[in-house]
Amino acid sequence: MLRALAHPLRVEILAVLDDLLEATATEIAERVGESPSNCSFHLRQLEKAGYIERAEPRGTAKPWRPVHASRNLRPDPEDAASVRTSAALGSLYVQREASRVVDFLATPPVGDPEWVRTVMINSSEVWATADELRELGERIVALTAHLEGRSSDPSRRPPGSRRAFLFATVNPDPRSEPTPQG
């Protein structure tokens, strides 16, 4: 499944579908600057891997929609190819998210203190065991569980809510040696 995403255009196509909730190959092509036929090929690959599915037809249009609202990019630690694929894919996602944050910072919501106070950029260094890092990652994911479903169902959005993004990474420092066992 990870290998199906290891192509920059497929990552971009999924991002468009996440934004629009459903779109045709032509609509996606307009957003990503590719041909509809090239997008159709990549959409079929994403469908085979279970990331997207066909939505209800709109007249003659045949839109696609994402199957999941989020994606777990963790590799199989016993499979070196899975680890390499996950690293390459993770790199694509980090680059995309970093670009999005940089674009946001170029035009922050000046003049609206309520929303300006919501912006946070945090970098932390911690010493933790592998179990603690896994738990930290799971807790970060769990923090947004109560907000799920609001993208696809506008009736679940509270008054005054806005679309927002959370981008978090948890990773060990490969240059750091584990603390010796006592």
Number of domains: 2
Tell me the distance between the termini.
Answer: 40 Å
Q: Spell out the helices and strands N to C.
A: HHHHEEHHH
Mind describing the biggest β-sheet? 2 strands, antiparallel
Mean pLDDT: 89
- CATH fold-level name of the largest domain: Arc Repressor Mutant, subunit A
Which geometry do the CA atoms define?
globular
* CATH architectural group of the largest domain: Orthogonal Bundle
| Total number of beta strands | 2
Name the CATH homologous superfamily of the largest domain.
Winged helix-like DNA-binding domain superfamily/Winged helix DNA-binding domain
Q: How helical, in percent, are the residues?
A: 40-55%
Number of helices: 7
CATH class of the largest domain: Mainly Alpha
What proportion strand?
Answer: under 5%
Which strand order does the major sheet show? 1-2
**Radius of gyration, Cα only, in angstroms?**
19 Å
Helical/strand content category: mainly alpha
The low-confidence parts are none
Domain HTH arsR-type: 1-89
InterPro entries: ArsR-like_HTH (IPR011991), HTH_ArsR_DNA-bd_dom (IPR001845), WH-like_DNA-bd_sf (IPR036388), WH_DNA-bd_sf (IPR036390)
Region (Disordered): 59-80, 149-182
Pfam families: HTH_20 (PF12840)
How would you portray this structure in words?
InterPro entries: ArsR-like_HTH, HTH_ArsR_DNA-bd_dom, WH-like_DNA-bd_sf, WH_DNA-bd_sf. Residues 1-89 form the HTH arsR-type domain. It comes from Agrococcus versicolor. Pfam families: HTH_20. The protein has seven helices and two strands, in the order H-H-H-H-E-E-H-H-H. Helix 3 (25-32) crosses helix 4. It has two domains: 2-66, Winged helix-like DNA-binding domain superfamily/Winged helix DNA-binding domain (Arc Repressor Mutant, subunit A, Orthogonal Bundle), CATH 1.10.10.10; 111-173, no CATH class. It is 46% helix and 3% strand. 12% of the residues are buried. It has a two-stranded antiparallel ribbon. The chain is mostly helical and 182 residues long. It has helices at residues 2-5, 8-20, 25-32, 36-48, 80-106, 113-116, 130-143, and strands at residues 52-54, 64-66.
